[in-house]
Description:
There is one protein chain. The protein is α/β, with parallel strands linked by helices. It has a single domain (26-245), classed as Spore Coat Polysaccharide Biosynthesis Protein SpsA, Chain A, CATH 3.90.550. The protein is 36% helix and 10% strand. A five-stranded mixed β-sheet has the order 3-2-1-4-5. β1, α1 (52-63) and β2 form a beta-alpha-beta unit. It is globular, with a radius of gyration of 17 Å.
Amino acid sequence: MSSLSANGSADEVDETGDGAATATDDAERVEDRYTFDDLSVVMGTYNEEEAIGTVLEDIDEVTGGKAEIVCVDGSSDRTPEIAREHGATVVEQEPQGYGVAVREAILTPDRSVVVTTDCDDTYPMEALPEFLAEINDGAEAMPVFNRLGNPGFAAVASLLMGERVHDTTTGMRAYRREVVEGIDWTENTGLSAELLIRPLMRGYDVRERPIHYAERLGETKLDPIGGGAAIAKSIVTVCLEEQLRRF
Ligand SMILES: Nc1nc2c(ncn2[C@@H]2O[C@H](COP(=O)(O)OP(=O)(O)OP(=O)(O)O)[C@@H](O)[C@H]2O)c(=O)[nH]1
Ligand SMILES: [Mg+2]
């Protein structure tokens, strides 16, 4: 995809069952490459005691302990204690849905690059170096859109946006902080779709990369019917809002 606007580029990375993204604003190109010292890995955590130790250990191992980790937690189990034992910053919050937690998680740290993920061991933390490389590449190169993977809502979103994407709902993405902070977000369950669609439709460089998606540890927090309907509604609403914004 190559729709560009004055504000530059965002990139996104994807995967094979769920996607992953990066958002970069090349209006303000960076000379130095970002490193793991510039990276915050953030997530909502809601009764994930089965998975959180593994997830946080993987992040530490892959980034040499350099990435900052932020968990916005609504748990009644031992999740927050385990997170603190692993050195993560824990923000306590009543459980109010995925997007409310992830919004807080994105806005809590102030490092230049933020990666969102789930705390259920579904996403491969080994992909973090590649995500960071894409952010660095996107900050330095011409905006490009690479398409890989193939999810469900993507077809509808692609039609509405006029740009083909393959996964609108992935929880694993990398963004340039100034991009996510420069846009008003409104969705909750559909936040992942919104965080893809708005930057893409504003001309940011969004890239998809294939990653492996593992079976979840612990129980889902998403109601498949209600959650699916909420995501579909978010996709349609956000796409229409962004189309109207162009006029
Ligand atoms: N703090 C907080 N975290 C939440 C809430 N809802 C979901 N999460 C977390 O957000 C992430 C995504 O939730 P999941 O249950 O994995 O949803 P999903 O990825 O759509 O579905 P599955 O992985 O298939 O179960 C997980 O780390 C959850 O613990 C919430 O209300 N509050
Ligand atoms: Mg999940």
